Amino acid sequence: MKINIALPLLLIVSILLTGCLPHESVEEVALVNLAGVDYVDEEYKKGTVAIHHYGRTKEEIPSEQYLSYTAKSLKEIASGLESKSPRPIRMGKLSFSLYGEELARNDLSDSIDMLARDPHIGRDVYLGIVAGDTQELMEKKYSENETTARYLIGLMEQNEKNNFPTTNLHRFLFAYYGKGMDGFLPYLKSEGDEVKIAGVALFKEALMVDVIPFTDVFTFKMLIENFNQGVQAIEFKDKNVVMENIGSRVKYKLEGNNNKPKFIININITGIVSEISDVGSLEAKTLTPEFEKEFSKYFERNGKKMLAKFQEGKIDPLGLGKILKNRRGNFDKKVWEQQYPTVPIELNIKVNIVESGISA
Amino acid sequence: MWKWKKDKGDEFPAQNETIRDIMKQLKQSKDFVTYPIDGETKCVLVYFKTMVEPKIINDRILPALKQNALHSLEEMKDIISVEGLTVTDDINDFRQRVMQGHVIVQMKENDKKFLTIPAVIAEKREVSIPEVEFSVVGPKEAFVESLDTNINLVRKRLTLPQLMVKELSIGKMTKTRVAILFVDGIANKENVNTVMQRLGDIEYDQINDSSYITQMIADNSNSPFPQLLDTERPDRVTGSLVEGKIAILVDGSPHALTCPTTVVEFFSASDDYFLPWHLASAFRVIRLFAVIFSVLSTPLYVAILTYHHEMIPQDLLATIVSSRADIPFPPILEVIVLELTIELLREAGARLPTKVGQTIGIVGGIVIGTAAVEAGLTSNVLLIIVALGALASFTTPVYQIGNTIRLVRFPFLIGAQLWGLVGVSMVMAFFIAHLIRLQSIGRPFFAPIYPLRFRDLKDAFIRLPFNKQSKRPIQTRPVDSNRFNQKRANEKRDVDE
After folding, report:
1. Cα dist. A57→A66, B323, B331 in Å?
2. Which segments carry the region annotation Disordered (chain B) (predicted)?
3. Which residues span the domain enclosing B195?
């Protein structure tokens, strides 16, 4: 008998309560695609969002409007931005979140925390560090046919297929909250009318500490993940030789125990030499073993330099600590942090060039 | 078996004591004829002239009576060459027979003893092509309103001594003949008994169509889902009988019912068996997808546009937002307006004569749709979604389930508006729970899915080739589950062997 009253009552209450929830249709809200946060001073931050105004026909490129507001916390910025917007601001469609380098060098934890906590925001949002002012970068018009947000996403998607390692909010959070790992984000630079990926910004927790220049990004990606594309050029006897990667496989080996770990990184790269200036194709064929040697030498030298830099800076973007934690157990973060700068890391790179001369 | 259940006092019309009373009552009707013959044979013919075939009276009865001198009903019975003559003095028989179109012969008026001569007019529609379940390939016969013709259509396809036809009459006033067909030795006895018992228990004054029976013997008569499959194709009925199902035919209804059935069966067309199995399976999957699309497309539109903006792909956002920009209504009102328009068109199309109906369908669809968009009442994105949803709901091969799908969409819409995707999921959970609980003649309605009958999946979402269909569906619990010897079926013999 009791359930006979309780069930309809529950239904009625839950139906009536839906009236208390304000909801807007898509065209009644301002959807943010692109957001940026800049450092003003110790206390203040400046937030900028790009919202789209869609025309009456879908052929029109939506006009972008930029709103910015300076306040102490992101929550205040959010409510401050509302005061400048004709429609309620919704972060659900956020696809690229930018942070000024100065802010990143000071502390990014608040901003990351905000993204991590909002259930409306997806996990495939791109994050980026901007050299200079984010608002400036956002407000520039890069393409006639696309919005800036779309343009920047295209830039990232395109590069991730090639030399640039995969980054997004999910991956960054994994590294940020994971033990024995540090995150990295793309480092964007605005140059004249263009914006370019200038390298990889390396983080220690939520602090940006270093940048890998774009020329070394191939080597960095090679250490991080398996990939089938990308291009690397080297100098060979005063000539420029370009290798097109068609399959790079990285394997981490761990020897020793918690007290004395040793890491061995084995990388196999299969590639095609596609562009050699002033070398005949027949000659190129005989030179292939030499190219292989030269490329592996280059990668080893470059990789070792990079690893030494990581150890020196006490950052671990490769997640070696995570590997130790996963494979050996009994992980002690403090012990690991002391060990890390001196832990031996062996890097073996094998380059296999299967074809030369013809560019695909 | 069922007769004892009926209380005699409930009979309609009330019992008349004597033949004289009945005659008095019948004589009030204009088409009732009392025709005395005053020759060598003295007798009285009593009949309804609208119910009897004049040919039989003129060619068979009158010559026999006038050319011979007959002095008893027994003599007449021997002389008149019409089948099914009886001599009796049962008052109930008198009333029933005269009403059915028999000619009654009495030696003198209001005599107790009488002879009945069946002379019913065989007025019926020709067997024609199926209109509801039309199929390009396959047989083109459909049931008609005559029960005997319908049984004939089934029997000539299934010439089996084991094909049983049980008959009972239902309806206090209409006394409609209802036939139950099943194959003895295949159909489960328990199923047959359930059907017989439920039919016998029907207490109602009229049965005008088999759909009355569907609603009356359904396991859950409050469910929007039909629990007996109705079909106008004799070949489909034969197929069901061979699978161990039971068919119910109702006099005056061109639709047969088969049971027990499953929800998946409502989406299988007879085309599925006329086409190669892979094509048939692909089309069946498309049909199932169409149904899901038809039910969920507009609720998802409402839920996503109202609550879950982040689910709209970036590239679609401009299209949706710009088409919605001029619309003064929230998505839910927009959807309800358009859905109701479609439902109106559908109702109007169904009520109007065929020719006009088609025009209304096409003209109404295009004109009203375009005008609504131009007037800024609905967005063109929604127009496409609603039109596709309506189109998809027409893909169901069985008309009854199409009506269900039409209705089921609305609870989903309400759920979507109230609680977004959570609401859609809640309504979905409710309907799935309902389907799982539902039974068809005591057999699970959601069968191959829950309870999972792995063997029955061979003819559910996809239809496997005939040589894989060696077992009858478990769902019907057939007495003999083997359709054929699979080993022999798979043997490949050379011509020389």
Report:
1. 22, 7, 19
2. 473-497
3. 147-261
Which chain B residues touch A25 with a CB distance below 8 Å? 305-306, 324, 330-331
Residue A180 near residue A336, CB atoms below 8 Å: yes
What ipTM did this prediction achieve?
0.84
Q: Would you kindly state where each structural domain of chain A is located, as residue ranges?
A: 24-213, 226-360
Q: Do A57 and B322 touch (CB under 8 A)?
A: yes
> A54 and B418 in contact by Cβ < 8 A?
no
Tens digits of pLDDT across chain B (497 residues): 444 444 554 555 555 568 888 888 888 999 998 888 887 788 888 899 898 888 888 888 888 888 888 888 888 888 888 888 888 888 888 888 888 888 888 888 878 888 888 888 877 788 999 988 888 888 999 999 999 999 999 999 999 999 999 999 999 888 899 999 999 999 999 999 999 999 999 999 999 999 999 999 999 999 999 999 999 999 999 999 999 999 999 999 999 999 999 999 999 998 899 999 999 999 999 999 999 999 999 999 999 999 998 899 888 888 888 888 888 889 999 999 889 888 888 888 778 887 777 777 777 777 877 888 888 888 888 988 998 998 888 888 888 898 899 899 999 999 999 999 999 999 999 999 999 999 999 999 998 898 899 989 999 999 999 988 889 999 889 999 899 888 888 888 877 76
Cβ-Cβ contacts under 8 Å, A29 against chain B: 309
CA distance A257 to chain B (A): 47
Looking at the structure of chain B, the number of domains it has is: 3
Residues B284 and B425 in one domain: yes
User: Does B418 sit within 8 Å of A58, measured CB to CB?
Assistant: no
Phi-psi region of A255 (alpha: psi -120 to 50; beta: other; left: phi over 0): beta
Neighbours of A355 (CB within 10 A): 16
Residue B491 is assigned to a structural domain of this protein: no
B382 touches A: beta carbon within 8 Å: no
Residue B51 included in any domain = yes
Which of A10, A71, A213, A11 lies closest to A131 in space, CA to CA?
A213
The CATH class, in words, for A226-360 is alpha beta
